[in-house]
Structures are given as structure tokens and as C-alpha cells.
Amino acid sequence: MIALGLLVLILTRIEAAWLSPLRPLTALEREVPLWPPTVPLLTWLERVLIAPWARWDALWYARIVAHGYQAGDGTTQFYPLYPLLAMPLARLGVPPLTALTVVGLAAGLGAVLRFERLAREEMDPIRARRAAAAFMLFPTAFILFAPYAEGVFLMAAIGCFHALRRQRGTLAGGLAGLAALARPQGLFLLLPLAWALGRERRGLRWIPALAAALLPPLGWHAYRIVAVEGLPPLGGDFNAFLYALLFSPHAHQVVPVQAFRWPWEALALALRRFGEAPDVDLGINLILAAGFLTLTALAWKGMDGGERLYTLAVVVSALSYHTGPVHPYMGLPRHMGVAFPVFLGLARARPRLLHVVPMAEAPGLFFLVIPYVLEAWVP
Predict the structure, then answer these.
(1) Could you tell me how many helices (H) and strands (E) the chain has, helices first?
(2) Lowest-confidence range among 59-63, 162-166, 239-243, 327-331?
(3) pLDDT given at position 202
(4) What rounded mean pLDDT belongs to the chain?
(5) What tens digit of pLDDT does each residue of 235-290 get?
(6) Distance of CA 139 to CAs 25, 308, 369, Å?
(7) Could you give the C-alpha distances from 61 to 104, 227, 367, 370, in angstroms and in order?
(8) Rounded distance, CA 340 to CA 344, Å?
(9) Which residues is 95 bridged to in the sheet?
């Protein structure tokens, strides 16, 4: 599986570099030619391998690595574990985006390997490899090779399930806590954690596991409120309360219009928008979301209770996240894609599909690199 991961990494790097002159968005892309190689060589390599991926959230993470969190500028919407892991490299003089890329690539490849290891504990190696390939080749999974937090999050989240399978509750709780420092979906790991501990009937012995899961995100939000932003007003509707305590009251600096609605309301708004004014961004998101929901339905029988709870929470929250009247579902398939138990469920319940799914996914993965690099689609 490491060979396939490296192949995807190399091919997506070549593709992004080839595309970047079509819309050079960073200073390096505008000032340094793609070919022939120029000196200093490290600058040229940064232009070829790093700069084409400096899009969307990657720029926010680079800003945090370079300048830290600042009140009122939207940076606090981005959770801290990923940029914190990149900061030591940046302090050694590595450019922020390069440091983020090194951490992200290592974590992304690590997440794929950990997923395969998890699958191998209950199925034969061939089926485990096919499940890992389906996981890694889902179209939005190219983000594992971009300066995004998904790789770090999935390393911790998959590790949490692995620890639960081995009945190591405190370790599972600690990994859930780390996942909740990488992305807000980490809090959904409390559901399989509670499900597993409830089945074991461990009584008060579940307290260390729960504490290990809750203390890291509570510490982050306490720091955000006390040291960076100050105590926000808690009045208003549900979304005001949610953004004040769980995200950031300044999240509009990143996405000007965003809110959580009932999933059927958010979906209805998105479908209405697409019917009135169809565009590439929304079309891609709706098609990929429909595909992932189909895979989820096919895999449902093969998932256990904890996997179903986590997957359901991830999918419902993604469908509920409304990002305004123009692009109402930004990031929808990427937010769904962290529900990795779907691919374990497919391997258990529909193993024959694993002959087809990775081959069907791969063209979509390489296609989506195009609108990402050209900033025609928000992953």
C-alpha cells in the first residue's frame, strides 16, 4: 500500500505542477518558471512541489504557523494540532507551507497504513489492501497530500478505533482527544468510545478514557477564549452559541456566511440553488456526496455500532453545514470523507465491490486536483 500511496503522491505532484502556470496564484508561481530548473534549486523545488498546493485552507494554516493565532482574524476557526506539529520545522527556517506539507504528507501516508493495519486484524491481506485502496482513492482523499489537517486527524481517529478494538480505553480516549485538536469532528469519536465502554460494562473505569478524550479540546477552547478572543457573548440563537463555544465567533472571516441547519433544510437550499444557477463547485459536491451516501448505505450492514454512530454523526453534520446562498455546500464531500469506517464496512459486507470501487474512484481523484489548483472548486 505504501507503493500505491507514493505513486499517487508523485502523480498528483506532477499534475499540480503542470497545471499551476494556467493560474499562478502565489508569488513563487508568478516569478519562478516551472521549467527549466533555476537556482537556487531549493526555491525552484518549492515552486514546483509546494506552491501549487497553496490554496484555500492551506493558506490559513500557513498564516497560523508564521504568526500564530490572532483575535478577530478568523484563524481561531482552524484547530491547532496540525499547525503546532509544523511549527518546530518552521522555527528551524523551513517555509511554513513546506513545513505543513512535510507534516501533512507523513500523516496522510501514515493514516493509509494505519487503516490497512486496522483492516488486516480481521480480514485477509488482499481484502485489507483493497479496502485501504478504496479509502485512499476516494476523490477528495487527494487532500491527504495537500497542506490540510485531514491526515493528522485521520491518523488519530483511526488509531482511536484501533485502540478500542484492543480494549485499550484510555489510549483510545487520548487519541480521540488528539483528533479533536485537529478537526471538530474529533468530538464524534466520543460516540464509539462510549459505545465500546458501555459494552464492556467497565463502570467507573471509563472515567480516564473520557477525561483523555475531553481535556485536549476543552483546553484548546479555554485557551482560545481566555488568551486570544476573550469571552464571547452567549446570547442569541443556537448557531451563535455553537460558534462562540465550539468554533469561533469570527468564523465569518473565513466563510462569510455559514451556519448549521437541519440537514434536510440545508440540502433543500443546495438543490434549489443548483436548480436555479448550476455551477461546477456545487455540482461536484452534490455528485460526490451522493456517491459517498451510496457507499455508506452499501456498507451499513458491515459496520458495528460504534462505527455506525461515528459515521452517522459525520455525515449528518456535513449535510447540516450550510455555507451561504452562493456556494451552499463548500467542503461537503471532504467533510463526509473522514467517515473512514464506511470502507471497512464495504470490505466486510460487499467485498466484491472492492474490485470496482478503487478503479471508479481514481479518475475522480486526479480530476479534482484540476479545479483545486485552479481555485475553481473548494474542497
Answers:
(1) 18, 2
(2) 239-243
(3) 62
(4) 93
(5) 678 888 888 888 888 888 899 999 999 999 999 999 999 999 999 999 999 999 99
(6) 23, 22, 9
(7) 11, 19, 24, 21
(8) 7
(9) none
pTM above 0.85, yes or no: yes
- Whether 165 is in a domain gets the answer yes
**Cis-peptide into 40, omega within 30 deg:** yes
Other Cβ atoms closer than 10 A to 352: 8
Supply φ then ψ for residue 259, to 5 degrees.
-170, 160
Residue 142 lies in a domain: yes
The pLDDT of residue 203 is 61
Give the whole-number percent of the chain exceeding pLDDT 90: 83
306: buried, middle or exposed (CB in 10 Å: 19+, 13-18, 0-12)? buried
Quote the domain boundaries for residue 162: 2-373
- Domain-embedded: residue 379: no
Q: Are the C-beta atoms of 78 and 61 separated by less than 8 Å?
A: yes
Does any domain span residue 173?
A: yes
Q: Which residue has the cell 468564523?
A: 251
| Alpha-carbon dihedral sign for residues 157, 163, 169, 170 | negative
E-strand spans in the chain? Answer: 259-260, 321-322
Grid coordinates in use for 193? 468510545
Total number of domains constituting the chain:
1
Q: Does the pLDDT of residue 205 top 90, yes or no?
A: no
Cα separation, 51 vs 167, whole angstroms: 43
The pLDDT of residue 248 is 85
HEC string of 359-375 equals: HHHHHHHHHHHHHHHCC
- Kindly report, residue by residue over 284-306, the tens digit of the pLDDT: 999 999 999 999 999 999 999 99
